């Protein structure tokens, strides 16, 4: 058997770096966000060289938590980390990183599931007895870790990795010398620091080195008043282009580097919708957290199981026309001590009609009020 | 005292916008000058770093601000009061009248540097100023009360003021332990965007509203963001007495619970008052569970042999099923 011109297609050589895996879809190199169910929702993880934007919830608690998971994942995988915050003290944030759970919680969960159905046989809907339970996230995790919020990450794990912290004080000193015409001085300083870090740490794609590593950049609450951002406007009331310019430059930097950037932005502070859209477009992956804390939805029985809604705003189209398309866009998150979970939004099995539901809530209204043989008149209870 | 306005947000109204200096006395403010404050401790203090009190012309917050001042004076070693409003003088009178000694006054001007030469005006860097006076030192516990920050916001971009408040509340900036920063803000002088930026910066926001019931003189809606991430929203009515204590605190319930009660009345039990029987007695239920239904047999088979998820195929080949290993498509008529 010879003479054929057929050649087996060999895959492009994938670089082996700790804490990464190639995407199943487009062979991009992926890293974990630190939340396995989030990786799952985004199509495997964050592609190297992209910018991941999290639109903060109103009080910023869950977005800060996501950022901590991302940083903790850097410590666990040995990636280099660059953490910036103007609102919080980055040193303090590093001290509060959650500890990883090294014994896989997925295994114990699966074991529990098998024993559960036998205890309660279904009598009428018996055909459904042996259906697998709905699982929001893959039960076995080889990529990414679960973290225990009740414990702090041991300092020896953090100490072993390459961590750069930039706090608000670093900007104050340099602000005078590099106030630039086209960009807010703080953004400019940060951009310079990222560029220096990429150069100094050999994260650039043009450099040929033996042992590659990934640079994880975490920027907390970018565009908050502490950055001098006046909700997208200049002092005179014109639109301030600093933030879009910063994001544009940042993405250009990352495209040529082995780095991933996760940014949280309090977009609820910006009133200009077009400005927010521009920010979306300048990032690759965009998700939005909508926490129920302090809102009416907290008491709504429809959402009793969840802590907030998780909206996927934009998924990256990398080297292809199509992005990863998740199973559903109706996602919600809930926080347990040992797990932050993003799941399909399930409505509870039954809501009593007497439960108070505000009219303006769209999902609550999905449940049909009274159908079938009943009429609306109150006098007859059953009307055939 | 009569409250005419229905809500806080009469924003951008009134003469104060033009000059940036709070104007004449309203009747309510005049009343308050005589009947000043007291104490209020709605939350655990250690968690709170900065706090906005937001008032309006109709619902002045200086009394509540003074209540905070008096309350803080009893809990920390030193209270620094930074005054930028003309009406701030009332607070001095209150402090003197009550004989409180650990309050230090910093008399400032509500005008900018260009108009007035003063050691403390709205262009002053407050962090530098407080450091410069040398009064923040040692292991003291300190609280800072600013009355008010409205002029700062009117004269400078809002983020600058947010940064100032943030750095005042930041422990790293001072040697001593700053327990709390309280700022008074005239909510009707600013637009929504400025207010939302300030709200984002502070850990709790007390917004004064007009009381609904006649038993109370004050009403406020409080938003408190706990460090744990829990958010508390509460509307309370209270009275500030002559002895400067907040008393008679009562939570104002929203009208939503009423609605749900109404719902319950409307939802009728469909099985009541029928001409036929739809409900079962216990005995009848037991009899129903013993009926052998068409699928019961299948259920028994399932429960006997196979473990869940497994199946078996029983197939008996007949004559037509001459299965040929060599040609599996033998039976097809091609």
From TrEMBL, chain A:
Keyword Signal carried by entry: no
Source taxon at top rank: Eukaryota
Gene3D superfamilies in the record: P-loop containing nucleotide triphosphate hydrolases
Entry keywords, A to Z: Cytoplasm, Nucleus, tRNA processing
Compartments (UniProt record): Cytoplasm; Nucleus
Protein family: Belongs to the ELP4 family.
Protein name: Elongator complex protein 4
Organism for this UniProt entry: Pinctada imbricata
Lineage per the UniProt record: Eukaryota, Metazoa, Spiralia, Lophotrochozoa, Mollusca
From TrEMBL, chain B:
Bias (Polar residues): 296-307
Listed pathway(s): tRNA modification; 5-methoxycarbonylmethyl-2-thiouridine-tRNA biosynthesis
Segments of skewed composition (Acidic residues): 318-334
GO biological process assignments: tRNA wobble uridine modification
Residue segments, region Disordered: 1-28, 292-334
Keyword presence, Calcium: no
Main location: cytoplasm
A GO CC term attached to the entry: cytosol
Compartment(s): Cytoplasm; Nucleus
A Pfam family hit: Elong_Iki1
InterPro entries: Elp5 (IPR019519)
GO molecular function annotations of the record: tRNA binding
Keywords in alphabetical order: Cytoplasm, Nucleus, tRNA processing
Family membership: Belongs to the ELP5 family.
Protein's UniProt name: Elongator complex protein 5
Source organism of this protein record: Pinctada imbricata (Atlantic pearl-oyster)
